[in-house]
Amino acid sequence: MTAEQIIFLIVALFTLGSALMVVTTRNLIHAALWLVATLFGVAVIYALLNAGFMAVVQVVVYIGAIAILFIFAVMLTRKDLRDNTPQTNKNWWAGALIAVLTFAGLVFTLQGWSGFSKTASAVPLGFDAISQLGEQLTSPTAYVLPFEVASVLLLAALVGAVYVAFNKK
Amino acid sequence: MNFWNDPLKVAAAWLEGIFTGWGMDAVLAHVLVVFLGVFLLITILMVLDIFLVWIERKVVARFQDRIGPNRVGPYGLIQPFADIIKLIIKEDTTPDGADKVVYNLAPILSMMSVLILWAVVPLAPVMLGIDLNVGVLFLIAAGAIGTLSIIMAGWSSNNKFAMIGGFRQVAVMVAFEVPMLAMLMIPTIFAGSMNMNAIIEAQNVWFFFISPLAALIFLIAAIAELGRAPFDLAEGESELVAGFNIEYSGMKFGMFYAGELLHAFTFGGFWAILFFGGYRFFGLEQVSPFLAILILVIKAMLGYWVIMWVKYTMMRIRIDQMLGFNWKFLTPLSFALVLVTALMNTLLRGADSWLFVTGMFLSNVVVGWIALEIARSVARKERERVEGVKAVEAHH
Amino acid sequence: MNEWLYVALFIVVGMIIPIGAIAAGFIFGPKKPNPIKQSTYECGIEPVGEAWIQFKAQYYIFALVFLVFDVEAVFLFPWAVKLGQLGLYAVMEGIVFVGILVVGLVYTWRKGMLEWV
Amino acid sequence: MIPLSWYLILAAALFGIGLFGVLVRRNAVAILLGVELMLNAVNINLVAFWRYGDVTLMAGQVFAIIVFAVAAAEVSVGLALVISVYRRRNTVVADELDLLKW
User: Fold this and answer.
1) Which helix (H) or strand (E) holds B272?
2) Number of structural domains in chain B
């Protein structure tokens, strides 16, 4: 086993363990902090995939903004933060079954695919993912439409959230 | 390649030779050497941090017409070491009902978020730190961890002041991160890269002269990010007592305190790197890496001095004014500046160097002037409105 | 391997050193807890209730606007990197992109949501 | 080298855990935390396919960034809904929001 594989396994276990804590912890602030740990693990996975930009963006967006938003939202709805009623509903075993079946189904489906265990070729020397990204995000023949639509989506999210949560009526 | 010209490579090769001589695996030896290098750098930073306490206290004393620490050692130089011994032998209390793990993790993360910033600092042309092609965003990512540590400290202390202080601090920090993100785009546009070293290499003319407004806004956003005056709302004794770190004592408090000072110095350094040419100074950096490091440290100290100067001459702003200033003035202005810079950069491409610099400088001045005029007219209307209301009230 | 390994080393060392400092404080400091000392500090007044009080909605709005601009910056940074080699159309795309988001900021402003009441 | 399958299995497992969270948690904020996990699982897949395919085709990364925007939109509107519901009904427990059953 190479060092890279060992690192991957450690990070993957860390990520999955924190993810399990996210869905099982009673205290919601702890759940949000475990989410931060999970997302950090995912950022390390991106770094392992040579996607440095994605890794740092993961930290900036998820840990810097989304986790903070979650913590603020928990504080705003704090009555349920420390209640002692069960945090999971009665059908938790059915949920667990569905989750396990989904996982098994996904793995089973993927196993039949010919490219399942292929390995990556080396990144070409001097390849700059960010500059490629910049070019393709603005190129009319590539992804300029998703680029602008993302802006509209964010606008809709901002306006919608402000309207929904704080309409003074 | 001798030690004087490339100390890092020479030392690393020498150490790796020793380690492999002991029969160590080459890759492992390399990692170990890098580990030692990182350890050395961070230790130097911590020692520097100790002296920053002394510098800060001396400078504030001068600003306030005092002498400052002068009893312990020559010029009071031993004073910070006495402070550290005091912090170490102080009792480390944890309040009842605190969330122990989160409470203890917060100061560690706070210090770590500052220390890792130095990973991307290019110290000299041959000592680039880590040559990340996302260097500029790394700054924001580290800041995100710092923000998180403040929320963790505030929440886990089980103290109302800590809670409110932490949340207010975070609200201000995230608010001022928006103009900071925008201002980081401007060196990126000029250099065509997010790599810190590429940004320094591109500064044949310091970016300060090309985009002075960007340098100014970056400084304001950085000061807010640091939580120093005029944005030091946690220090508001009458409202928040000490903000998020009220329950911390001993070395845990020391971590927050030292982290803040080192953070200020680090941002002085980044200000120098992004807008004042980093280690470059009329070709002197090519003479020796040691000279380059000296230049960078002097520039960082000057940046740090400006941050202190602002801190000790400005009053604290109220939090509503802080946030209003950011969202209603700084954010629109910084995005307007980014777009104007992008437009001018494209229009002036291929122009002579002096034309480019003059055009950029003038566009910055115009944008700043328009923004100030708008702010002034809005302020005048607001004042008339308020005074008009008062006049009517007095009339009744 | 790649440069992120060095970043990982920085993170590890950056945590070891504060842990060491705090551990030193833990070793050398006295440990004599008592209920008064352990109570939360509220300027000498006995603490009433718990600290997990409810917060006002404005915090959420600020985090929300920040999130939107943060994600926007993620899109704009690759644009900024490549801008030097692209034509005027790229600048126009950027202006449209930012312009759409500024509409959101103006809406929030007009709704009075940027006020710290 | 790490084969592609490892990343895909990790992503599938993360998706499963997220799905479990969405299905069983009672608190609406916790359900949104589960959705975040699922979106991240998708992103791991997208970036892994980018890396293991032709790296000069940026589609994987572009769509991962779009997923960031989608996640941000989902979280902001979702949490705003939760806060809105909390203000009207004083609860964020999804089981108790049964107005439409009547």
Assistant:
1) helix B250-275
2) 2
Same domain, yes or no, for B68 and B124? no
Q: What residues contact B24, with CB distance under 8 A and at least 6 apart?
A: B32
With a threshold of 0.80, does the pTM exceed it? yes
> Does the distance separating the beta carbons of A59 and B152 come in below 8 Å?
no
Q: Which chains touch B (3 or more CB pairs under 8 A)?
A: A, C
Would you identify the CATH topology of the domain D4-91? Helix Hairpins (1.10.287)
> Per-residue pLDDT tens for D48-86?
888 888 878 888 888 898 899 999 999 988 888 888 887
Task: State the Cα–Cα distance between residues C80 and B188, nearest whole angstrom.
Answer: 6
Whether B177 has its CB under 8 Å from any CB of chain A: the answer is: yes
pLDDT tens for A104-162 read 888 888 887 877 777 777 777 777 888 888 888 888 888 888 888 888 999 998 888 88
The overall average pLDDT reported for chain B is 84
| Mean pLDDT score, A44-61 | 88
Find the CATH number of the domain harbouring C29. Answer: 1.20.58.1610
Look at residue C51 and tell me whether its pLDDT is greater than 60. no
Alpha helices in chain A (DSSP H): 3-24, 28-48, 52-58, 67-76, 92-111, 129-138, 144-166
Interface contact D51-A50, CB threshold 8 A: yes
Residue B219 confidence (pLDDT) above 50: yes
Longest dimension (CA), chain D: 57
Same domain for B6 and B124, yes or no, is no
Taking CB atoms and an 8 Å cutoff, what residues of chain C touch A165? 57, 60
B255 & B159 share domain: yes
D93 bridge partner residues: D27
- C68–B contact, CB cutoff 8 A: no
C56 inside domain: yes
Given this model, what pLDDT does residue D40 score?
A: 92
Range of the domain at B117: 93-319
Query: Does the residue B362 lie in any domain?
Result: no
> Is residue B124 domain-shared with residue B221, that is, in the same domain?
yes
Q: Which residues of C touch D (CB under 8 A)?
A: 57, 60, 64, 67-68, 70-71, 74-75
- The domain ranges of chain D are 4-91
Instruction: Tell whether A123 lies on the interface with C, counting CB pairs under 8 A.
Output: no
Provide the pLDDT for residue A169.
47
Higher model confidence: residue B5 or residue A4?
A: A4
Interatomic CA distance for residues B148 and B106, integer angstroms = 8
Dist CA B70 CA A154 (whole Å): 56
